[in-house]
Every structure is written in C-alpha cells, then in structure tokens.
TrEMBL record, chain A:
Residue ranges annotated for the Hydantoinase B/oxoprolinase domain, each copy included: 18-537
One Gene Ontology cellular component annotation held by this UniProt entry: cytosol
Organism: Actinophytocola algeriensis
PANTHER family: 5-OXOPROLINASE RELATED, HYPOTHETICAL 5-OXOPROLINASE (EUROFUNG)-RELATED
The name this protein goes by in its record: N-methylhydantoinase B/oxoprolinase/acetone carboxylase alpha subunit
Single biological process term from Gene Ontology: glutathione metabolic process
Molecular function GO terms recorded: 5-oxoprolinase (ATP-hydrolyzing) activity
Entry superkingdom: Bacteria
Coiled-coil segments on the chain, per record: none
From TrEMBL, chain B:
Residue stretches making up the Hydantoinase A/oxoprolinase domain: 205-491
Residue span(s) of domain Hydantoinase/oxoprolinase N-terminal: 4-184
One GO MF term: 5-oxoprolinase (ATP-hydrolyzing) activity
Entry keywords, A to Z: Hydrolase
GO terms under cellular component: cytosol
Amino-acid biosynthesis in keyword set: no
Name of the protein in its database record: N-methylhydantoinase A
EC annotation from Swiss-Prot or TrEMBL: 3.5.2.14
C-alpha cells in the first residue's frame, strides 16, 4: 500500500454544492480530460498514438475514484500494489499488469499516474496510459503471437517514481529505453503523457482555487452520487429481480493453435444490486490472448452500456460501482496466473463490447445491437531499408485496422469504422511517405456486413504492397466464429488475410502471426470482418438495397439476401423481388431468432479448412 | 468623396454599413435577408443606406462583402451534385473517412453517420498511380478516364472534383483528368485537389476539394449576379469578398476557390472586432460573438487574428485556412433541460431557433431558453427603447419555472441564474480552447463582445476569463459589416514539402519563399494593387520529424538572406512555441511541412468616428431604473440609452445600456467607461470580495 505524504493534515470538509456549481465542475473536468488528449496527440511520435490515438486519460478524486475518463484504469488497485511513499511532484510509471491489479492489461501500455496536490494535500489523481509501439522483446512491436509468458513480451516496468519530487530519474529511464527498438518514440510519447497529466493537474488546481477545495471535493462526491442514483433507477427499470441472464461469445484462437475460447457472462439482479459473473468462461489460454481484467473495469464497461442512451451528456464516473458486484474466476481467461502471456488481449477487450451488447440487449431493445467490429486488429511491418537514401535505417510500423459497425436500432452500421472512441486510421499517403509501402486498395468489401433491416457495416480490405524486405505480424480474430446478427439480421462475414507473393503464389495467413517474412513485390490483403445485421432483411426498402448496389456496398447477388432481385446497375425487378421475398419468408423459422450466430460451433470447426483455408484449432487445454 | 460599403448577409438580417472614407461617418441599414437570392436584400439595403446618407450609388468606390452563400449551401445540404474521381482502390475514401466515431466508449450506438458530400454512386475510380515521391508508378489510363467521366455525365453531376492519391507530390494526372473533363463535361466546373489543397492526407484533401466543388456553382452564380445588379444600379466600384482568413479577394478570385469562403461571415466579425479594438487601443483580445443558436470565439494578438488550417461548418471539417474561430452550440435560443435520470441542469445544444423561438417571444415557444432566463432576471428589459419585439415576461417565467421544479432550485430566479451561469460556462469553455489550450493566458487579453446576445453576457464572461476591459463596440449587431469594410486585400500561396531540416538549406528555402511570394503577389497585382503597396508575410508549419501535428510559426524571410541563420532561427522559434504549448521540447530532428506566403494589400484608410466628450457623469443618458436579479439577490439597475452617452461618461453597475439592436449588462462592482470611439469599456471597480 502506498503511503501518501501530505503536509496539510486538516481534513477536507463536506459542504453542500448547488446544482449549478456542480455542473460547472463537471464541465471543467470534461474540458480538462479533452485537453489531456489534445496535448498527447499533438506531441506524440509513434503512429499508434499520434495518428490513431491509442491512449486513455483519466482524472480521479482524492480516493482514486474516476470522475472523468473514458476507459477505467483502477487507481485504487494501483496504489494498493505500490509499496513506497508518494509526495508532491512525484510521477509514477508502470507497464506491469501483474503489479498494479490489472489497472493496465499488457506490457505495451505505459501507465503514468500522478497525485494532484493543492495546498499540501492530495485532491485527486491524473492518469493516462498509451500503447507504445515497441517495448522490446523477441518480435518487433513486442507482441509475439506465440508467447506463453510475459517474459517474452519485452520490458515490464514495475510501478516506480519516474519523477521524484519533480526530479526525473534519468538512470531508470535510460535503462528502460535501452530495451526498446524505437526509444525516440517511447521517450516522446512518455513526455506527452506526463505533460497531459500535468495539464490535468493544473486544471484541477485551478478549480480548487476558483470554487474552494472543500467545494471541489464535495462536488466530486456529488457527481459520483449522481451516477449512483442514476444507475440505481436504471437497474430497477431494466432487470427483473432474481432473473439471471447469460450470454456467451468466443475468441477464435490463442495464437498457439488452440480454440475457440468461450467467454461467458451472466447477470442477476438481487434487490438494488446486480452481480456480473464471468464463471463458465474458458480457463486461461496457453497463448497471449488472456485478458487480465479487474472488477472495476467490468463495472465500467457495464455502466457505460447502461447509461449512454439515458443521458449522453453525463460525465461518466465510478459512482455507481457499489451497486455492481463482480465475480471473476481465478486462473481463467480473465484472471490468468502470473506469468501468463498477455500481449494479444485486444480481442478480449473488444469482445467485451459484444458480450455486454448481447447480455443487456436481451432486456432492453434500446441497447440491442448486433455484433460489431469487436477488436482492434493490428498490422505490423518492420525491417531495414536495403537501398536508397535511408539504406540501413530501421523502419517499424504498428497500426490498427477497422471494420464494420453493427446494425443498430438507430440505423445501418457505418462501413469500415472504429468501435473505439477517438481512434482514427493512418492515411495512406502518410504510410507511403514514411514506410516502404504502397497501398493498392483501401475499400470496404461488398456484402461483408450482415444483411438486416439495418445493414451491418462492411469490413475493409487494405492491400499493402511491400517495397522492402522485412517481416510482418498480424493480430486479428473472428476468422472462425461469426459476428452475429440480431432480431432476424444475418451475421456479418468473417475476417481473412492472404499474401500474394511476387512469384505468383498465394498464401493464406492465420489471424495471429508474427515474423512472417515478406519480400519486395509481395502483396498482403488484410480483410477485416463485417458487423452483424439488425432486424429482418426482407423488410429493407428495395430501393435502398438497389442504391447500395450502385454504391458498390452490396453486390447484385448479395441483394438476394434482402430478397431483392436487381442487376449490377441497381435496377430492381419488382415482380421477381416480391416472389423471392415470399419464397424466403416461407423458408425460414417464425419468429426469427433473436441471435443468429451462423452455423453451430461443431459445424464451423468441421468446415474450417474448406471455408477459411486454415485448419480448425484444437480444443483448449487446462494449464497444469 | 468616396465611400466604402460593408455588406454582411446573415441568416435573418442583411447589414449594410456605408463609411465615408474621409470623415469616418457611418450610415447603417438593416433589412431582412432574402435567402432565395441574397442579392435582392443586399441591393435594397444599399439603396436605403445611400438614401439615408444622401449619397449617390455611383459614389461608392468599393463594396466589401461577407457572404454566407457557401456556408448555407453546406449547412442546408443544398450544394451542387458533385462527381468525384479517385484513384483505383480508393473509391470509398469519403465513405470510410478517418474511421472516426465521435463520442465516448459506446458512442457508436447513438452516432448518426452523415452522408458523404459526394455520393458514392457519383464516385469513380481511374487507373494510374503516383508514388509518394511524385514518380509515376502506373501511367494514367486515358481511355478509362474518358469512360468514367462519361458515366458521371450520364448521372447528371453539376460539379466535378478530382482527388488522386499522392497528387500533392505530382499533379500531372489530376491536371490531365481536368483536361479530359473539359472535353467530356464541357460545362461542369472542375476542382482539382492539387490546386485546392496540395497537401498530404488523402481524406482531408479530398473532402476539401469536394466541398469546394459543391459550393462553387452557387457562389459563382451569386457573385456574378450581385456584380451585375450592382453595375445596373450604378455602382461602379469594385466588389470584393471576405475570405475565411479575414482577407479580401476580388469577386472573381473568390468564386474560383469558394471553399475559402465557408467562414466568411464569422471572419467579418473578427476583422470588425479588430478594427474596433484598434480604435480603443487594445491590440490583444478575445472575440465573443453570441447569437441565437451559437457563439463564435477567436483570439487576436497584436491586431492579427490567429489563423488555423481547419474550417468547421456543421458536420463538415475541411482543410482551409480560416480565422481560428471556435463555435459552441450556445446562444440566446439554447434550451435548458433536466434529464430525469441524472437531474443535471443542461443548457443546449438544442436551440429554439428563430421559430418557435424563446417563450418570451410569444411565438409558440414554451421551452425555457437562455433569453427567457435573461428576461426573468430582468437583464433583458421587456420595455426596450426602440425594440422591435415586445417580450412576454410571464411566458418566460412559466418556462423557467419548469427548470426550478425539476432541479429543486428554490426560486424561478435561481433557476434562471443557473441557466445563465451554465451557458456562460459553456461559452467560457470555447474561450479556453482559443486561449488557455493554445498556451495564452486570457488575463493578458481584452474581450470584445458583439452579436445580438454578446453584450448581455460579456461582463460575466470577462469575470470568468479575467479578460479586461470587456469592450462593447458601437452597433454590436453590425460589426461584421464593419469588418468587411475595414480589412485589406489578401492572397496566399502554399506549398507542402515534408522535408527534414537536414534535407534543406537556407538557399533552397529562400528560393521557395521567392517563388511563393511571386505567386501571391501576382494575384494582388491582377486586382490592381501596386507592387510597392504589397506586403508579404511568411509562415511555416513545423513539427518534430515523426509527429502528426504541425505548429504554425511565423517565418522571417530576411533571416534567409544569404547566410545560414534562417533554418536555425526557424528551429528556435518552433522550439519556443512547442515549449509554450506543451511545456517540453524534444531532441528529434525538425521537419518543415508547409510554407505559406501571404501577400497583403494596404489597409484602407478609414477614419473612426469620434464622440463628443463629456465628464464621467452619465445621468443625462439615464432613462430610468429597473429591478434585476444578479449575484443571488435583487438589485436596482440604472437603464441608459447608449445613443445619448458621451466620451468619458462612466456607467456604474448594476446597469443596463440599451440601443437599437443590443443590450449591455454591467454587473455590480463593474463600470463601463465610454471611449471616444464609441466603445464601452467595462472594468471591475474595487470591491473587497472581487478577485479580479
């Protein structure tokens, strides 16, 4: 447990805060949090943060409860695991999930935490983590798909004081940066993260000056309470007392040839509280897909899904946490035993979206979306320039791809977009300027979005032509199981990757590979998956289906899934459409199933090789 | 005798300002805007202003015009049907955009994705490829181009945009497509991305080019129409249009690159504020333009507005140089509401708009708005001298009471004060974006407030920002027209390089500066500005190699004379700016991304009107007193008629100053001094509880 050194000992007083001051504080916090993003985006060097925004800020109250942020990381868990003094001017850094209670979940994420002091007393915490493109280890980008332990995943930084009373520990930083392939990136990104946290601290201090520290502190309590009250009402309204809901989804494989892994979540409300239970999920994986998650993060995901629709302007915070109990089984996919490998947990995080969507949507039509683009698939390319003015220079790319947003109650899922907040793609022209690459295609693939009254978004095909020899790595999923549709909607198409070698041969790539050698002239197709469809495809307006044929988002053949008969120019044959729709209606179950996952798992495994070009994974085994 | 004419066409009113160049005397006219053909309202307003001044239309030397034609075409989705030609493999560049979904972690659930500005069915791909270094990978397939253009012709497009991958590095293919389009689609205007925005990043370049194409036909039509009607009415003077960056261009040039006009309206406000602040003697200030549905703010330093590289209009963000105006959805019509679940008090972004408008307008609106709150508090008197609208206080109270009930606040006044505090806070947030977040301390700046509602909230905003004095210009409602009439001709030439400093020499940069300056000067010369009257200003966008964002830094061309100090000076200037913005510098190599040369014509010689002097006593302008609610209590506020105020008069708060198109609130412990230029300068006066 950390020991907090404060020079002011008088306790803060609880005071009444009027609703207007409260909203002013809320607004100030929201501004401060966006300012944190801005500072980092504008100063970072690694494309992952600079161009794609793979980072997450947070401001907490004195007790470490998040009062603003978009993605929890648990300050209390962090402090409980830090065994030293914390003083004014200290800045803490860690990248070790096992030493901070899973406040972060893999070693690529560098987490900075700093206490915010005001007049000798801690009034809050600013924290931010960012994904470092490389933290050393055996493969570029530090995410070996065959890792069995965290020791293979690069430098793992235990929580320590990067700055002690405002003075940088240069030696420690030098030792850390000596482990990584692109130290200039890590240094700049880390600088930006620290600057962002300091900016947040300044804003909080300004608010303490403006409103008074007691008012500020009590205001945060009131904001937390606001979430608590809101959630209490929501829980009663949405869930029946005593009823248990469950939902299961999958991670297709673990990088070592085992899979699929079952992720199960159940929810039961008893009185004013709910229990979220992850029991029944697969045991921990051999490979690096484990998603080490703490209870608070589960609460946060749950809360965000519950309340986004209720008051989108609300400042999201931890206040409702006491209303949610969480049970995570030990030695499971969600709580693996040290030193299990963790690097590829991005699929698990993404799949949490689908899990909550499927779980909560069973009760609340406002929240029932189909399965979406629930991952952040990675593409890495690195090597050394063999010619030209950069000859001998090391290049390294880490990038995140996007796919189909699912069909939603609101409407169609956008094509080729991000399910993650603030993420953006790296422009083709940027990639071509900074890397020996040519992008030959960057388009969504027609018909990959699940058919539905509201169509699922299409997946994306990015075709990379390599101009220098090097190696590539891929982290992706949903190559085996389907992004499910809902309320009668069809599943979306699965993801695929293949290499067209310069010598004319074609090679199907697994969804999790690294150190794949490429040569100049080789072409990689990285095709992400589509979102599931929402609602009965046979009620979609034929004119809209035809328009999407003209737009190249649906093919003439694909239009038949909507019971629409048209040609490539999008001219509808109305009589044939009526006939096809009648025939399709007669052929299908009534009522339509709420969830459509495509074929059952047995059939999927049986057909894996034939349909995907990849052998079916072996059943997961329990680690000894 | 020559006259300059400023014309600002807003959504509701067209403001005309006629300035006698010799005396600075001004004549104003306000007429209803005519959205179907804005030139009708403009002509009507000019005739009225001339009649009032007793001036013949032929005495008008120049007409300066801020226009919202381009803005409205975008906001109302009434732009031209645009065809888009892209490189094979990139047809969905606008469909995929940057893959960005706004909002928080579950934001995608509630985000309605806007339709691309060029429809996908009107987007075609052509074969031919340029590499990042400008070399040709695959020749342009002209047969393919012709076939695709023919398809677009068949589809009935009204404007064409061409945006090919890496065209910023080599425009040859785009130019050739343009030539072929002139054959296949002879009457369709063409926008090439390599001309509109020769910059790296395909989505941003494409969307900017498409936006240009979308507004071009309307802008060209409007400008030609207006010029013709002015001529017919006997106005021989030249017509100039205000660009988003606050510079003027001749009407013809404006019509070529209309994407640069998207913020013409707000830019007029900022340039107007600049003129006013110069008269009052405050070169550094924030602008605060509060209207019915939104508020625009900007930062001006040394009488030079900060210019940004992005222009945001509604859902659309394009890369076009504009005065760095930030907009928040907060205005007099913003609606207060209390979500039942959280019982928070929210104001906006929903607005009652012009119809039905605030409850106090008694035009069918019942939702509580900021205006209603101001009426409840007595800040907006119902018996306005010269006011066109009578305000219904009872309706305002009834509307605001719903907020008091939902929040449990103990009085209607408390709820109204809460609404005003929160909307002020939202606008304060926008002012922070242009000041604190850019590394500027707002306390080093004055605050110029205008727009219909600006003067009402200005004193409170001054208190939040610590920006003193708060300056209320004369006629705050027609400030944009002032800006139109008092700025100068301007044009810029830009080049994107993306070169590390190691790849550059002072000599190579100097050559580039010369080339860009010549290009920018040429436009001004064509518009009749003598070379000796032209002034060229340079700027560069720099970053550390590997960063994704650039910081604009002024560039001193003289330092690139013949030595080696130029790049060194630029490096130092960038480091200083990076330190100021982010509190650290990096050891990485510097990279020159973009260089800009802006040629300025001479500032017009417009004299300012001077008020006759008087002592501090303002009692002759006092028309009475009214009860207002302020700082949690009722107080008696003096009511003053602005037209009667003399230079040197001091109006001590709490007070309300009324004039034709605006109301100024002076808070307790503040006082407004009348400046000879007609501005009110509000400052805090000593009192023990005030921190400022």
């Amino acid at each position: 447990m950390a020991r907090l050194i404060e020079t002011a000992t008088e306790p803060l007083r609880a005071v009444d805060v009027d609703v207007v001051t409260l909203d002013l504080i809320e607004n100030g916090l929201r501004n401060a949090r966006h300012e944190m993003d801005e500072v980092l985006f504008r100063t970072a060097l690694s494309p992952g943060i600079r161009e794609q925004h793979d980072e997450f800020p947070l401001i907490a109250n004195r007790d470490g409860k998040m009062v603003v942020g978009q993605f929890g990381l648990s300050i209390p868990d962090f402090l409980a695991n830090f065994h030293a003094d914390i003083e004014e001017g200290d800045v803490l850094l860690t990248s070790d999930p096992y030493s901070c209670g899973a406040a972060i979940s893999h070693a690529n994420d560098w987490l900075v935490v700093l206490p915010i002091f005001f007049e000798g007393r801690i009034v809050g915490w600013a924290a931010m983590f960012g994904h470092m493109s490389d933290v050393g280890g055996k493969s570029p980008a530090s995410m070996p798909t065959d890792a069995r332990t965290i020791y293979e995943e690069g430098v793992v930084i235990p929580p320590f004081r990067l700055y002690k009373k405002g003075v940088l520990d240069d030696d420690a930083l030098r030792i850390i940066l000596n482990q990584v392939r692109k130290p200039d990136w890590n240094r700049a990104d880390l600088n930006g993260i620290v600057a962002a946290c300091r900016t947040a601290a300044r804003r909080v201090q300004e608010m303490c000056t403006r409103f008074g520290v007691d008012t500020y502190h009590s205001g945060l309590d009131a904001l937390l309470d606001r979430n608590h009250r809101a959630m209490k009402v929501l829980l009663q309204a949405v869930f029946k007392d005593g009823e248990t809901l469950s939902f299961t989804d999958y991670i297709c494989d673990d990088g070592l040839g085992y899979g699929p892994y079952e992720l199960k979540m159940s929810l039961t409300r008893t009185g004013e509280k709910v229990l979220l239970d992850l029991s029944g999920s697969s045991p921990q994986a051999q490979g690096p897909i484990n998603y080490f998650i703490n209870e608070n993060l589960i609460r946060m995901f749950f809360g965000i899904y519950m309340i986004t629709v209720a008051d989108p302007q609300i400042l999201w915070n931890d206040g409702f946490y006491p209303l949610v109990d969480v049970k995570i089984p030990e030695d499971s996919f969600w709580k693996p035993k040290f030193p299990a490998a963790l690097n590829a947990r991005n699929h698990g995080i993404g799949r949490v979206f689908d899990l909550f969507g499927g779980l909560l949507g069973q009760t609340n039509p406002d929240l029932l979306n189909a399965a979406g683009f629930s991952s952040s698939p990675h593409f890495m390319y690195s090597g050394t320039y063999s010619q030209g003015e950069r000859k001998g220079e090391w290049f390294q790319l880490y990038s995140i791809g996007f796919g189909g947003i699912p069909g939603r109650p609101l409407g169609d899922g956008p094509d080729g977009h991000s399910l993650w907040p603030s993420f953006v793609n790296i422009p083709c022209e940027y990639l071509e300027s900074y890397y020996p690459l040519r992008i030959e295609r960057w388009e969504t693939v027609a018909d990959t979005g699940g058919a539905g009254a509201h169509r699922g978004g299409n997946g994306v095909d990015v075709a990379y032509r390599f101009l220098e020899p090097g190696t590539i790595a891929i982290h992706d999923d949903r190559w085996l199981t389907y992004p499910w549709g809902v309320n009668g909607g069809d599943p979306g198409a699965r993801g695929r990757k293949w290499l067209e070698r310069a010598d004319g041969t074609t090679e199907v790539l697994g969804s999790k590979v690294h150190d794949v050698p490429v040569r100049p002239g080789d072409l990689l197709h990285f095709v992400t998956w589509g979102g599931g469809g929402w609602g009965d495809p046979l009620v979609r307006d034929p004119a809209l289906v035809a328009l999407e044929v003209r737009r190249g988002l649906v093919t003439a053949d694909g239009a038949r899934r909507y019971g629409v008969v048209c040609d490539e120019r999008g001219v509808v044959d109305e009589a044939a459409t009526d006939a096809l729709r009648a025939e399709s209606r007669a052929d299908r179950p009534d009522p339509l199933p709420i969830f459509n996952r495509g074929p059952d798992i047995g059939t999927i495994l049986e057909r894996a090789l034939e349909e995907t070009g990849l052998p079916a994974p072996k059943p997961p085994v329990v680690m000894p | 005798m020559t006259y300059r004419l400023g014309v600002d066409v807003g959504g509701t009113f067209t403001d005309i300002l006629l300035i006698d160049e010799a005396t600075g005397d001004t004549y104003r006219a306000k007429t209803s805007s005519t959205p179907d053909d804005q030139s009708v309202g403009v002509l009507r307003g000019i005739e009225r202003a001339c009649a009032e001044a007793g001036v013949s239309m032929s005495d008008i030397a120049e007409v300066f015009h801020g226009t919202t034609v381009a803005t409205n075409a975008i906001l109302e989705g009434k732009g031209a049907r645009v065809g888009l030609v892209t490189t094979e493999g990139f047809r969905q560049v606008l469909q995929i955009a940057r893959s960005f979904v706004p909002g928080g972690l579950a934001g995608w659930i509630i985000w309605p994705k806007p339709e691309p500005l060029a429809a996908l069915e009107d987007t075609v791909e052509v074969r031919g490829r340029i590499a990042a270094d400008g070399s040709v990978v695959t020749d342009l397939d002209e047969t393919d181009v012709r076939a695709k253009l023919a398809m677009l012709k068949g589809a009935g497009i009204e404007a064409l945009s061409v945006s090919l991958i890496n065209s910023y590095a080599n425009p040859d293919h785009e130019r050739r497509v343009g030539e072929l389009a002139a054959e296949v689609l002879p009457d369709v205007p063409v926008s090439l991305s390599s001309s509109v925005l020769p910059e790296l990043r395909e989505y941003e370049r494409t969307v900017t080019t498409v936006a240009n194409a979308a507004v071009q036909p309307q802008v060209a039509r409007y400008v030609a129409n207006l010029a013709g009607q002015l001529r017919e009415s006997g106005v021989d003077g030249r017509l100039c249009i205000l660009r988003s960056d606050g510079g003027l261009v001749s009407a013809d040039v404006a019509a070529d690159n209309p994407v640069n006009l998207l913020l013409s309206g707000p830019a007029g406000g900022v340039t107007g504020a600049t003129w006013v602040a110069e008269q009052a003697g405050y070169p550094d200030f924030l602008t605060f333009d509060m209207g019915g549905t939104s508020t625009d703010v900007a930062l001006v330093q040394g009488l030079t507005p900060r210019v940004g590289r992005e222009t945001v209009v509604g859902d659309l963000t394009v890369r076009a140089t504009s005065v760095d105006v930030r907009t928040v959805g907060a205005g007099g019509g913003s609606i207060a509401h209390v979500p039942p679940l959280t019982q928070a008090l929210r104001v906006g972004p929903q607005s009652a708009g012009a119809a039905p408008g605030p409850a106090a307008y008694a035009a069918g609106g019942t939702a509580p708005t900021v205006t209603d709150a101001n009426v409840v508090l007595g800040h907006l008197p119902t018996d306005l001298a010269g006011g066109e609208i009578t305000l219904d206080r009872a309706a305002a109270r009834a509307a605001v009471k719903s907020i008091a009930d939902a929040t449990g606040l103990d009085s209607v006044e408390a709820a109204a004060a809460g609404i005003v505090d929160i909307v002020n806070e939202n606008m304060f947030g926008a002012l922070r974006l242009v000041s604190v977040q850019q590394g500027f301390d707002p306390r080093d700046f004055a605050l110029v407030a205008f727009g219909g509602a600006g003067p009402l909230h200005a004193n409170a905003l001054g208190r939040l920002t610590g920006s003193w004095p708060v300056i209320i210009p004369p006629s705050p409602g027609v400030l944009c027209a002032y800006g139109d009439a008092t700025t100068n001709l301007r044009d810029e030439a830009v080049r994107t390089l993306v070169r590390r400093f190691g790849e550059l020499t002072d000599a190579s940069v100097r050559d580039l500066l010369t080339e860009l300056a010549d290009k920018a000067r040429a436009t001004l010369s064509e518009q009749g500005v003598a070379v000796e009257d032209q002034r060229v200003v340079y700027a560069a966008d720099l970053r550390y190699h590997g960063q994704g964002f650039e910081i604009p830094v002024p560039l001193d061309a003289d330092s690139f004379g013949d030595g080696t100090t130029g790049l060194a000076a630029l490096r130092a200037a960038f480091d200083a700016e990076h330190q100021r913005l982010f509190s650290f510098v990096l050891d990485a190599e510097h990279e020159l991304v973009t260089v800009r040369a802006t040629a300025h014509g001479p500032r017009p010689q417009v004299s300012a009107a001077r008020l006759t002097g008087g002592g501090p006593d303002a009692s002759h302008a006092r028309s009475g007193a009214t009860a207002i609610w302020v700082d949690g209590a009722e107080a008696e506020a003096g009511v003053y008629d602005r037209a009667l105020l003399r230079a040197g008069n001091v109006v001590t708060g709490p007070a309300i100053v009324t004039e034709m198109d605006s109301t100024t609130l002076v808070l307790p412990w503040h006082a407004a001094t009348v400046h000879p230029s007609g501005c009110l300068l509000i400052n805090p006066v000593d009192h023990p509880g005030e921190e400022n």
